[in-house]
Amino acid sequence: MATGASSAASRSRRPVGKVVMEGVRDFATSSPARFAILVFGSLVLLFTALLSLPIAAADGKVTPLADALFTAMSTICVTGLVTVDTATHWSAVGKTIIFIGVNIGGMGVLTLASILGLAISRRLGLRAKLIAAGDSNPLRVHGGPVNEGQTVRLGEVGQLLRTVALSTLVIEAAIAVALYPALVMAGITPLNALWEAPFYAAMAFTNTGFTPNPGGLAPFADDYFLLTVLMVAVFLGSIGFPVIYTLSRHYWHISRWSLHTKLTLITTMALFFAGAVAFLSLEFDNPGTFGSMDAADTTFQAFFLSAMTRSGGFAVVDVGELYGSSLIVGSMLMFVGGGSASTAGGIKVTTLAVLALAVWSEAQGRASVQVFGRRIPSDVQRVAISVLAWGATIVAVATITVAQITKAPIADVLFDVISAFGTVGLSTGLTEALPDPAVYVMAVTIFMGRVGTVTLAAAVAATSRSQHYSLPVERPIVG
């Protein structure tokens, strides 16, 4: 009895900070996915409070909660959708808060959680490595064995985190240096260009799409160099940190590229060119978009629009003027998004690649899915199907809800909802006019799209349960 009392007294004398740290560490250990969601949710609340401050607004007044929350969600989740004009509503302080937020959010849910775990534990232990590695291989958020061969191995997670930090810093700095003279030549004063260049660089690499100047990219519509730099930055941000890590190690040795890297690059380029051809074919005679341009302008703008619908969020033409057929093409591209563990959203290009390879293998009567001399296991295929199903369900529910609240045209609602889910930032103009209830629905859609369907599914599951028996097989009729 005395021993129990002594132990209780010893616990009561422990510093509160240490107890809190141990509690956070235990929570992170038991559920890395939930810990990551908690981290992002906390960041959204923090930035909502910061953006609500009078000093963050250009008029010196408190920003309404719905607008502050939505902007914070769009910032942390690197989306770019807005309910208030970024250039005119926010002060220099507010734009600085947004700049910091997109760089924090661009590192990714699980990568960010691993860095915080590293700060807590003072070292990159197995737990932190598992959290970080989950961002390069979502299967690790589930229990059971995982093949490490095609992603980033646990022993390389520390190097991956350094790649995340260094690539973000180096790429954004290089993009800012390239953009500065272009902005000055476009009429931006040299002093303003000093902060607009890094702002645009951050928005491009993180695939966010906020613009700091009135009119967005309209003043630079004919500046092919500036728009090309933005496209390159969006591409680098959308392929994912694991791909950047692989390319940095084996740039000229394609045979050493992981299967994930090959599938990401091939699918990304295929969608880029397919989207450009589709927009070029559908919009060449549209007087509201490409109809008044010559052949060279039309071709370039088609490629730019294709790149931005993948998750970039910048727009030169008025998206609201696109034909309905082009809105559908854009919605499809936004739904797919970019690469895994990238600053892009969507269901990810590797998910699409795995599903396409599975369909092709089934059509050829193969027992397994094979590509580039590798076999894709069935658990990866199941995750791909789950991601597609969850993504489609989220988009469907959000579209029905927003359409019911606003009574707006369903094509516009669907486009903006998918833009929110894919964290793209393009809009037909609907989002800025949404009532508060619809704004909150869109904010939740952004959060679910950025956190990721795999992470959400893992967070919902309380524990991983193993089943030591199998049930009798019976085959339902499919198709």
TrEMBL record:
Which positions, given as ranges, span the membrane? 35-53, 65-84, 96-120, 163-188, 224-247, 259-280, 332-360, 380-401, 437-462
Domain of life, per the record?
A: Bacteria
> What are the GO cellular component annotations?
plasma membrane
Membrane-topology annotation of the record: Multi-pass membrane protein
What GO molecular function terms would the record report?
A: monoatomic cation transmembrane transporter activity
Q: Name one GO biological process term.
A: metal ion transport
What is the designated name of this protein? Answer: Trk-type K+ transport system membrane component
